[in-house]
Amino acid sequence: MVNDIVADSLARMNNGIQRGADEIELLNSKMVLSIVEILKHEGFIDDFKVEGDTIIVNPTYNEAGDPVVRHFIKVSTPGQRMYVSSKQIIPIMNGRGISIISTSDGLMTGAMAKSKGVGGEYICNIW
Prior knowledge:
Elements: H1 5-18, E1 24-27, H2 30-42, E2 45-51, E3 54-59, E4 72-74, E5 83-84, E6 98-103, E7 106-109, H3 110-116, E8 120-126
Antiparallel strand pairs: 1-3, 2-3, 4-8, 5-8, 6-7, 6-8
GO molecular function: rRNA binding; structural constituent of ribosome
Family: Belongs to the universal ribosomal protein uS8 family.
Keywords: Ribonucleoprotein, Ribosomal protein, RNA-binding, rRNA-binding
């Protein structure tokens, strides 16, 4: 039983990318699926597919075989929730990374939340 499925998924992606895996299996949930959709939209992963209780992610590597994304940092945890307003959202790594915010409109990147003027729970940083 996993206590924090988002932290588990971020750790699995981080470990899989560091070992150069072509496919990474994540536990399926609505929040993890939304995060994976954002990562695909932002170009951090090539593709993903849902097969029953798992999500299979294909990470993106550059021509030299290095991963496009190297860091997955969980910010809000079950024991310490972190909430931000739209004014508190800042660019990650000078715009080279993204933050993921859970808003009343669903999960979105920090840049999208800031442009819409909404805040929410600060889920993670990815760069």
